[in-house]
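User: I'll paste a sequence; please echo it back and then give the predicted structure.

Assistant: Echoing your sequence first, then the prediction.
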Amino acid sequence: MRKKEWIVTGVLLLALCLPVFGNGTGEATDGTESIKLGFFCPLTGGTAQAGQAALNGAQMAVEEVNERGGVLGRQIKIIAYDDKSSPEEAVKVATKLVQVDKVDAIFGSLHSGNILAAADVIENSKTVLVSGGTSPTWLQQGYRYLFRSIANNTYTAIQLAKFAQNRGYSRIALFTSNDEYGVTGGKSFVKASEGMGFSYVADESFTHGDRDFTGQFAKIIGTNPDAIVIWGLGDDLGFVAKQLRQFGYAGPVLGCESWANPEALQSGGNALEDVYFASQYLTYSDPNDAEDPAMKSFLTGYIDEFGSAPMSDNAFRAYDGVHLIVKAMKDGNCTRGEELRESFNNIDGYVGLAGTFSYKGKQGEGIETQRIYTVRNGKYVEVK
């Protein structure tokens, strides 16, 4: 693969695919119009690293497809926008993608609240959108053109609740971000634990970007919980864990896949010891640490292309998402609209980085598998 520079102008970031036969303008050198793949994620602000990782993963998938001849004889071009982690901005860029750029399909966003905000725009345009957002909510509204490239956090919550029960934890405190992601994650855990005999002794929240949790932690620790469920974005979690340990809490923390974000480990350090989280994969810094050959190959190519390992597992989500879109296009001999949606719904048994995807009869959901991980001596390890 070839290293590239990203072109940024205002809120627009064009990741121009320069394929084997392409000229970077949306047309191949033989005059064939490229397939337009829309993309929107946070590329500035607190979650920019996660958004950039997703864009890099999408770019890798597109390059692989283009270097193998493209899709149905056509190359793919990515048109990417920064949604600034804002639902309002997500609506704006989604509208531009479908009405002005007239893209064939979309990957985006990382934030479930942004997907929910833009869903009507996507649905009304009959544009297939695949997302790495994990909140179950946006696929429970009856939308027909939305799909997910990772398990939703209902399955995360189920795995965590079973883990807590097996460990004998009964007094549980909740500490969640007060956005779509955190709120639905906390509710999913409570629902998953019904009948397990848990007692919820505290329920506190925080705003993404906060760095002072004094009041909430005073209340939580005062209830003497057996474990604390912490659900939020990766760029917050290291600071949350560090301050929690400084307040004297040395017990277990249970959480979502965001704890796998290297940024959480980097900012939290030893405070992440005894944190247990459910995830489909880890973000490895060394490809040789990956047991799965496909993951090892992806990481080797990623480091070769971008100079370092992914800063977020969103790179994996986007990579799988783009390849799933491509598969639907090839299987259905189509590139957009109702035909592409129907083809996507028929994907069954596709193996990606996250595992085996099957979408038949699942209303946009394609995978359920999860593993439990923790941190030992500064490294992520699977809990057997």
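The CA atoms of residues 66 and 231 lie 38 Å apart. The mean pLDDT is 90.
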